[in-house]
Every structure is written in C-alpha cells, then in structure tokens.
Amino acid sequence: MRTAYSVETVRVAEQELMARLPEGALMQRAVAGLVAACAEFLGRVYGTRIVLLVGSGDNGGDALYAGARLAKRGAGVTAVLLVPDRAHPGGLAALLRAGGRVVRGTDAAEEPLRRADLVVDGIVGIGGKGGLRPDAAKLVDVLGETRAAVVAVDLPSGVDADTGEVRGAAVRADLTVTFGTHKPGLLVDPAREYAGSVRLVDIGLALPGEAELEALQHADVAALLPVPGAESDKYRRGVVGIAAGSSRYPGAAVLAVSGALRGGAGAVRYVGPAGDAVIARFPETLVSTGSPEQAGRVQAWVVGPGAGDDGDVVAAVLRAEVPVLVDADGLRLADRDAVRARRAPTLLTPHAGEAAALLGVPREEVEGARLTSVRELAERYRATVLLKGSTTLIASPGGGAVRVNSTGTGWLATAGSGDVLSGLTGSLLAAGLDAPDAGSVGAYLHGLAGRLAADGAPVGAHDVAEAVREAWRDVMD
Ligand SMILES: NC(=O)C1=CN([C@@H]2O[C@H](COP(=O)(O)OP(=O)(O)OC[C@H]3O[C@@H](n4cnc5c(N)ncnc54)[C@H](OP(=O)(O)O)[C@@H]3O)[C@@H](O)[C@H]2O)[C@@H](O)CC1
Ligand SMILES: [K+]
C-alpha cells in the first residue's frame, strides 16, 4: 500500500524526530536523497549546469545544500535567491564554499535558466500557503519558457500539498523528490500532473497508522480479489444484478454485463428492456423483464448505466437490502434521502460532471478540488463515493483514508468505459468485498485493463472489458 500524509501529520513526526537527532541531521538526510536523485537523473554530474530556485524557507535550504554537493562533484551551480536576505544561511554558505554562484531576483534568472541542464525547484515546499506570491509566480513563468529539466524538492512549488489543488502558477517538474512520505497532492490531480515521476526518500519519520490517502498496489489487490474455493457454487461466489440500459441505450446494458462477468461473481442477472441485446452477446446471463424485486436472489445490484429516465427502477433497487452501486443516469434519478436511509452499503460512481451536478457546483470546481469534492459527496449521501478521473478517488461515508487509484490512462476516456467499470465493481460487491474495497479494486483492474488493451493505441469499452481477465492474471502473478 502506498500512503500519503497531511502536512500537519508530517510536521508532528518531523518535530518528534528532530528532537532526537543532532541539529541539521534531518535536512542532511533529505539532501543526500535529493543529490542522489539529481545525479541519477543527470546521468553525469561533472560539467553540467544546474540552477537552484531558492525560496525563503527550508525547502530552499535543501536546494542550496544539494547544490553545494553537486558543485563539489564538478557541476556549475547558480542559485537564484528570491528573497536574498532570507535564504537559508547554512545552505548558502555551503554553496558559496563549494564554488557556487548566486544571483538575486527573477530578472537575473533568465540567462542561467536558459542555459541550464537541470533546475532544482526549492521555492517552497510544505510551508507554502495559498497560490505562489507574485515574484515566485513570475520566476515560474520564466522557467516555463525554458526547456530545462526540473527536479522539484519535496513538492512542485505552487501546488497544494494537502489537496492537490493548483491555484495559479506552479512548477512543472519532471521528477519530484519527496521526503518522509508522499503528500496527498502528489497523488491527486491536478497537482499530480505537475509532479512528474515521484521518488520517496526515507528520512526516518514515524507516521501514524491511518493515512490521509491510500493507493492499493498489485499485492494489495491480489489479496482482495475473490477466488473461488473448492466448495464454491455460483450463489456462494455471489450473484450480481444489473438494472441498466434502455431501448435507446441497449449498449450500456451489454457493457455493464460484460464487466460484471469478469468481476468474480458466480452469475449475472440482467433486468431491463435490453435483454435481447444482452443475451445475444452473453448467453450465460440470467435475463428477466420484470421489476428488480421479482428478479430473484442477488447479493448486489448495479443500477443506472444507460437507464434513461426510469426513476422507478432506481427507487426499487435502492429499497433492496443488499449493496447497491449507482452510476450514470441512476445518479441523477436517485433520491438522496433514500440513499441516506439505506442500511446496506451504497456505492456512487460519478465522473466529475455528475459529481458537480450532485453538489450543485460547476464541473471545473470538482476537477480543481477532487479530494474535497469526493469527501463532501460521501458525507452528503452517507455513501461510499468513487469519483472517476485520471486519478480516481474513493471516499467512505465515515471519513478516514481516501483511496486513490492511479492505474488509469487517458485511453479509458471512451464511451461505455464507465459501464464496464460499474458492472465489474458491482460483481466484486456481490462477491463479498466491502464498498471501498470493491471500488478501489474495480478501479485498479479497470485502469490496468485499459492500459493492457490500449497498449498505445485507441480502444473501445468492449476491449477494456475483454482485457480485465489479463489484468486479473497480471495482478495475481
Ligand atoms: N518535513 C520534514 O521532515 C523535512 C522537511 N524538509 C524541508 O523543509 C521544507 C519545509 O520548510 P519550511 O517549513 O521552512 O517551509 P517552506 O516549504 O520552505 O516554505 C516556507 C517559506 O516559503 C514562504 N512562502 C510561503 N508561502 C509562499 C507562497 N505562496 N509563495 C512564496 N513563498 C511562500 C514563507 O515565507 P513567509 O511566509 O515566512 O514570509 C517561508 O519562508 C519541506 O518542504 C522540505 O523541503 C527537509 O529539509 C527535512 C525534512
Ligand atoms: K519545491
């Protein structure tokens, strides 16, 4: 499991550790990791030109000490001091001793930045408040006009460490070297995109059990995937009911069923007007045309994909005392009080536009503040919420760690891909996973299947469904 902790938690852990170590030792641990990452990134240090962007806090201190070590290894190092009289004194002295040079202010930065092989961003780290100040923002603009590679210290300056929000100018890094723990902003869009690849340097921080954010890895998913035992029959493996599709959108039903058949449930029931299309493609489906109540036993329901305006079916499914996944049209049709009143788990799976409609805010607001939005929705609906996107987030109604999935790919932004995800995830619910696990395992497999199916070329949703089996095997390997 990859975890991320808030700045507040990092600060507490930092204080505890600092109290036990000689002064400056913690910073030198961070610097050692930063230097190793820069050297590896450059391939060869000797003879390279490195520019340090130095703010007025310890983030700038890290950059200055790292610059000093790189200068000793033969790099030409220039530090751009944003606030010259507040640059980290020890770091600055070390750089000057090592033969580094210093320029002051943004205007003087232009020339060295244009010639740089590598820029080290030490403008601001976890001490940053609000958007970058005008001087720093101007420096970031100048940096943006160059083609230099950028390594960010701890965080790309300008992104919010705790929320992943980016308000105004921010550094676009090729690599971010972060200390002690990932910060939530490094795993959540839009900030994640600014971070480039992320390298974690262990500096010995002791962090509490519950993180702010968790990202499942292969081994975590493998441990959660439902695998039938020798005694299993289709009912013990779980039966998932799919109430989806309409005469106008029969394809949504077919795609949801295609996902459900690959999610580990022992059988898939389909209820709705697209039964002929479903049975033609997947003869193993148990199809009925009545209401969900009459469909027979299921251990979990999926309702909503391509459902059109059939509010009755959504209301009927919400009355069922088994886990229910609500997606697409179902989100618009579901009564909030009915969702809140449910005793069995509910999993809502909106994309940013649907989440915005549920929250009554513009779509951009959700896209800019994904973590806040998903938490807010989980609380309002007293349900687990999976907010789809390039970094999918899953929040539980009681608060606690938010799950983040980063296996997704831009190729998954294709019609019907969400229908496959809802079927797949509903199947995992029916197989007995709890709502946050079903959501995060579903998103993980779906993202991986998207990557495997795409392999660098466009894919349709049915390709993604077909690749779920390969993703499953890949995880189990
Ligand atoms: N945690 C750890 O264990 C370890 C942490 N370490 C390192 O320390 C870093 C944290 O250092 P930090 O606390 O000095 O804060 P930092 O990020 O340098 O920023 C504060 C400075 O920036 C300024 N400033 C604020 N907002 C701004 C804005 N919007 N735009 C522009 N400027 C802004 C603010 O100015 P002020 O408000 O005081 O006027 C203040 O001077 C951390 O990220 C990591 O790199 C490692 O060395 C060792 C292990
Ligand atoms: K930084």
From TrEMBL:
Superkingdom of origin organism: Bacteria
Cofactor note: Binds 1 potassium ion per subunit.
One Pfam family named in its UniProt record: Carb_kinase
Keyword NAD listed: yes
Cofactor field: Mg(2+); K(+)
Domain YjeF C-terminal: 217-475
Binding positions for (6S)-NADPHX per the UniProt entry: 58-62, 125-131, 154, 252, 306, 351, 419
Keywords assigned: ATP-binding, Isomerase, Lyase, Metal-binding, Multifunctional enzyme, NAD, NADP, Nucleotide-binding, Potassium
Catalytic activity: (6S)-NADHX + ADP = AMP + phosphate + NADH + H(+); (6S)-NADPHX + ADP = AMP + phosphate + NADPH + H(+); (6R)-NADHX = (6S)-NADHX; (6R)-NADPHX = (6S)-NADPHX
Domain YjeF N-terminal: from-to ranges: 10-211
Positions of K(+) binding: N59, D121, S157
Record: residues binding AMP: K388, G389, S390, T391, T392, G418
Physiological role: Catalyzes the dehydration of the S-form of NAD(P)HX at the expense of ADP, which is converted to AMP. Together with NAD(P)HX epimerase, which catalyzes the epimerization of the S- and R-forms, the enzyme allows the repair of both epimers of NAD(P)HX, a damaged form of NAD(P)H that is a result of enzymatic or heat-dependent hydration.
Assembly notes: Homotetramer.
NCBIfam families: yjeF_cterm, yjeF_nterm
Entry protein name: Bifunctional NAD(P)H-hydrate repair enzyme
Organism: Streptomyces tauricus
Organism lineage string: Bacteria, Bacillati, Actinomycetota, Actinomycetes, Kitasatosporales
Gene (UniProt): nnrD
